[in-house]
Structure formats: C-alpha cells, structure tokens
C-alpha cells in the first residue's frame, strides 16, 4: 500500500513505522503544498494528516484514497461531504492529550498549593522566608467539569494525591476515578464544595458562557479555577471581575475567548491570574503516541484480528 | 493520666484529642518557659514536645514522667542520658513528612517540565508565545537518593506519572515503587541514567559532601537536581560551579549548607537554581497527623491491644 503523510515526523519515528510495515511504502512530507507531496497524495491509499489541509476538491481528485488518519482530535476542517460520498474511512487521535493535560493540571494545582510564585519572589529579594504558609493537595476537593477521558485522567492522579474528586457529566452517571458525580442539571450544587475546579469542557452550544458571574460567587473564596477546555466557557470580562472581586483566589487559564490574547488585553495585568498560551495538551510525545494509534490501526486494516481505534462516524462527525 | 504538651494546637485539635480520652487530663501550653507550663511538666505522666525544649536537669526534676512523645522526626536535641537513666519511653513522628515532600518533588518536577518560569516571564511581557517547548514527566527517569519511606512515596507517585524509578539505598536491595535499585557501593553508576535526581538523604558521616564535582559531570546535561534532604550533601560552591558550567540544567534546593541562606550569598543570584527555605516538609496537616500517631500510641499505652508506632531505641537514638 502507498501511505502518504503531510506530517513530517523525526527520522527515528519514520524508521520505526517503516520497520513495522516493510511491505508498504511510506512517503512523509512537510505539508501538502509541494508538487511532490500533492502528486503522492493523489495516488495514496492511506493519507496521514493533521486534518487541516484538505478541501472537497482534493477528495474528489484522490484516485485511491480509502483511509484518512487524522493525527489530532479536531475534525472541524475536514471536507466530510466528499469523504462520505466516497465512503472513506476516517480515524483520529482522540485520547492522546490526556497525559500532558493531566500533568499540566496537577502541576499548576501544586504550583498554587506550594506557593511557588511567592517563594520565587522571595528568591528575587534574596530572602529566606519560612513564614509563607504552604498547603497540601491531600484532603482537598477537586471538581472536574467534563468527566470524560481527560477529566478521568486528572481525577485518577488527583485521587492518588489524596484528593476527593467530583465530576460533572451530562447524565450524572458514576464515572471511574470520581468519588461523586453531578449532572448538567444540578452541576451548580457542586460549586461550593470544591477547592480546585478544572474545566476540560469542549466548545458546544450547551457549554458556551456556561459559567456566569453568579457561579463564581457560589464557589469558595479560596477556590482555584483552571480552564484547559475552551475559552468561551466564560466571558473574559466576567472572569476578570471575579478575580478582581476576589470571588475566587486564583485562575490558571490555558484558553481564553480571544486567542491569541492581544498584548493590550487587560487580563494580562490581573494580579491573581496565570496565563499559558493554549499549551496544556502539547507534548514531545504527541506524534509518537499518534503513530502508535496509526500503527495499531494499520495492522488491523491489513487483516490482523482486532478492532480499529478512534473510527469516526461519518454521519455524526465524531 | 496527666498529659502535658509544650505544643499548642488549634482549639479544634485539642478538642478532638480530649474527646478521645475523656478519663485523662490534657494541658496544652505554648512552650515550656512559662511557670504554669513548667510546673505542669514536673508532674506530667506524658509530655508532648517538638523535642527541642528539654535539658538533662528537666528530666531529673520531672517526678512522674514515663513517656515523651516527640512531634517531629529530629531527636538531636533530646537529653538522652537522663531519659535512659529513668527509662522513659520516647516516640517520635517519623513518617509524617512524606506526603508534603512528595507533593513538593512532583510539583517542582512539573514546574520544570512545563516550563512554568518561562511562561510566567512571557506573561510579564504580555506575550502569547506558543513556541516554548514543554516536556512530560512520562517516560522520564527519576533517581531517588535515599529509597526509604519518603523516597518511596516520591517514587510511587512518579510511577503513576509514567516515570521509570531508580533508587539508591545502603544495600541495593529491591524496594517497593522502584524499578531498579543501586547500593551505596555502586550508586555513581545510576547518575548518567537519570532525568531527575532527588536526594532525601539525612546528614550522616557517609552522606556529608557525598556529591562531588565529578558526580555532576557524570549526570546528563539536561538533568534536574532536587535536594530536600540535607544541605551538606553537597558543598554550595561545588553546586554553584556545576550550575554555572551547565553540567546540570537546573537545581531545586530546599536545603543548603548555610541555613538560613544569607542575603549576600552568591547562590541567590545563580540563574538556573530555584531556592526554597527548607519548607518541603511543612504542611498545615502536620500537627493533625502527629496527633493521630500520638492518639494511636496512647490507646495502646493505656491497654488497647496493638503495637505502638515510632518507638525510639534509647541505645541507638532512632
């Protein structure tokens, strides 16, 4: 089979994939814009992509394409009309963000509990100050908005740190690694219980601007709010107000409504916020993990018994 | 029994202890210097202390003292001569540091891997900079110098984060939560293997100045060195040299040879070091945990079947 990729991994990773499938040909390109890359794509049986370089007309022109392996979780830019017409198999890399995102969350919870900013400031002042009171995660309560695969990974590690875990999912059904769950109908009741609140919610009609001013007031004053889902969960001016009013103690935001956040935006200057530029899911292990899923799927595609992972329903689009 | 404490816990904690032992009298003082406190001590059956307020003459004068419950791990300042002569039982609070110290270690490993300082600096510059490369703990190798209770707690959590764990203990015997162990005879062979090295070693003849210039050179250039044991593990000028030469990438030091570190000390100004003022073992849960051990022991002292925890051998002194 001819396998064409518009993603150029390291030589080492290319080698690993080739060695697993010696009877197939692999061509790796950096993007699809070059003539060689595009011609290869037109003849490919399998195409590997981040899912942002295809138009309807490309799907029409592709002569042999039977499977598109998207190496990300987002499929918003995929030309599904043509894909459906040609009944092309689509898979994605759902699930590979959970490790870096769980590390990010535990890291910043510990950053807060251990007062790392305060000690850093004292180091700048050359002061050996033992009076800064630190906290523990142990015995604290974590609320995860979005108790799915990523939320579960965060909860799993938090439980090992001795935290109580509460999850919110659509139905409120029990979920692994959560001591308690709430549904989207009564999620507000969970807000006063938490010492740390992390949202991994995607952007949906039901989650857009879900968190309002009143919700911040329902939280403990000492609460830490972490958003690694989508920025439109809360309007930035409402977040700023909650931080300035000290309705909450601190926010760690990896996502904001206006990405990239402009230099002139007032959020940068709020005292009790930590901003990171939508990097919680980034990892040097991203592509190795994505190619692990691909290799697993290619084995099965070629006849090894088993089930392919992350097959996308062309009707639902996820 | 008359139980006298030179530690003054919160009213809530006092209440909890009293309720468990309604037939005994508890007197809590802030220190032993006050006349009331000292007179109470002289008649006490059981004395609760941080272990730094007793002299030989106090032991002589104490009329009824049968048990000293030291609420810390350090016993260096205890007047063991008189204690031995009177055969007074001594217990300590060994083991209650492992949770905060494990949180500290995981927190600062994540601080490094997630480049929190770099993102903090970019926030100061109001720059949304997605090009700062972050790392994962997952797949990295942790070397723990001192694979005991605290080291094991660190290794346990690190394994859950997908790290490989190597431990050094006296004999090199296998230890729970460690994938591999080295003895004090061949510990240097472990140095090149590690991405993170944490020392929890106490100050002993065999550990003083254990880490020399050559050892930093044996480590990976990218290694992160964390010292939460004792500061005399490495001479500070040797550490500074290793940091300035980039023999190692970064050091997180909670302990130094000269505590408190003077304002004029050059270590404060080294670029790739993070200094905290010997606080890794501190926790708001410290006293509750120490009194948990005390209550367990008091039940058994009063006749409930079971074994007392952390009984000190008066001959060995630990």
Automatic annotation (TrEMBL), chains A, B:
Residues 106-280 form the D-isomer specific 2-hydroxyacid dehydrogenase NAD-binding domain. SUPFAM superfamilies: Formate/glycerate dehydrogenase catalytic domain-like, NAD(P)-binding Rossmann-fold domains. Keywords: NAD, Oxidoreductase. InterPro entries: D-isomer_DH_NAD-bd, NAD(P)-bd_dom_sf. It holds the Pfam family 2-Hacid_dh_C. This is Glycerate dehydrogenase. It comes from Bacillus carboniphilus.
